[in-house]
């Protein structure tokens, strides 16, 4: 899935971070679920129901950026009297393409690289 960002970006411009952050926040609902990894490492019943919170875009070099974010999780099982919650921090790298498209590298989340 590709997302065309509404702003115009210079590909290798360190000043893009604020505009990228604003554009990602505006279109967050289109990609946030893909950034939440499989939560089985916490518990097979662990879930996230409120998406992610975008924290910061960091310029790495050239057209490469990193998006830092966090997500909440919960495990509720009344039969075992289990009610736990937590928050995890994560980051994903992405490249900014000339047409204002971004391509996230989801391989660290256990997924293949994907375009958004």
UniProtKB/TrEMBL annotation:
It comes from Vibrio algicola. It comes from the Bacteria. This is Uncharacterized protein.
């Amino acid at each position: 899935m590709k997302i065309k960002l509404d702003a115009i970006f210079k590909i290798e411009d360190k000043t893009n971070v604020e505009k990228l952050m604003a554009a990602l926040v505006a279109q967050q609902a289109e990609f946030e679920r893909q950034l939440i990894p499989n939560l089985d490492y916490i518990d097979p019943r662990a879930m996230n129901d409120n998406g992610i919170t975008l924290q910061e875009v960091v310029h790495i070099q050239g057209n490469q950026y990193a998006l830092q974010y966090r997500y909440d999780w919960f495990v509720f099982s009344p039969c075992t009297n289990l009610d736990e919650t937590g928050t995890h921090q994560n980051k994903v790298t992405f490249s900014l393409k000339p047409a204002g498209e971004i391509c996230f590298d989801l391989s660290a989340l256990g997924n293949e690289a994907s375009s958004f």
